[in-house]
Q: What sequence folds into this?
């Protein structure tokens, strides 16, 4: 999220982990001016020390390194409590954008981006309100499927965006509930 937020606010990025970059941020993958800081799960601390950044934004994956990183530069841990974010996820994201706008003196642009998020959410809600189709939020990882339900970290898809769930049997779980292809077929 942090790279997306900084990109939207036109804030230059000095370094980032580059092992997993979504397609819409692919321009950062091979940019030599942006130092590759290792893996998303285990950043390269030596490279971070060499970079000497002005500010470090970290995710929950790096929470155990907060103390060490905060000795190097001001460090912000933008955290979303995924155990209870389903109804507030979009609001939390909007607040992160506003906070970054304040930090980088881009308050007006941040407010504009937040307004764009509101418009997009309203557009999606208008579409989902008219549709009868139902959906599963499914992740495929290492040959296994996991489904995320209404009260999961992706619950905002249902609560905020108004998508109708194909199954209410999915438990609230940070990493999703393991499911089979048969479960997907039955929910279809």
A:
């Amino acid at each position: 999220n942090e790279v997306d937020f900084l990109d939207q606010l036109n804030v230059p990025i000095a370094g980032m982990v580059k092992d997993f970059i979504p397609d819409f941020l692919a321009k950062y993958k091979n940019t030599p001016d942006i130092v590759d800081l290792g893996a998303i799960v285990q950043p390269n601390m030596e490279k971070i020390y060499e970079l000497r950044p002005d500010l470090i934004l970290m995710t929950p994956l790096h929470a155990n390194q907060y103390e060490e990183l905060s000795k190097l530069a001001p460090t912000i841990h933008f955290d979303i409590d995924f155990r209870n974010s389903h109804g507030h996820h979009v609001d939390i994201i909007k607040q992160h954008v506003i906070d970054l706008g304040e930090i980088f003196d881009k308050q007006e642009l941040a407010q504009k981006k937040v307004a764009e998020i509101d418009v997009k959410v309203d557009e999606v809600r208008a579409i989902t309100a008219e549709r009868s189709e139902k959906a599963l939020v499914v992740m495929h990882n290492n040959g296994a499927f996991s489904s995320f339900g209404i009260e999961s970290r992706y619950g905002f898809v249902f609560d905020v965006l108004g998508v109708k769930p194909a199954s209410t049997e999915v438990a609230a779980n940070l990493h999703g509930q393991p499911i089979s292809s048969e479960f997907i077929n039955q929910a279809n």
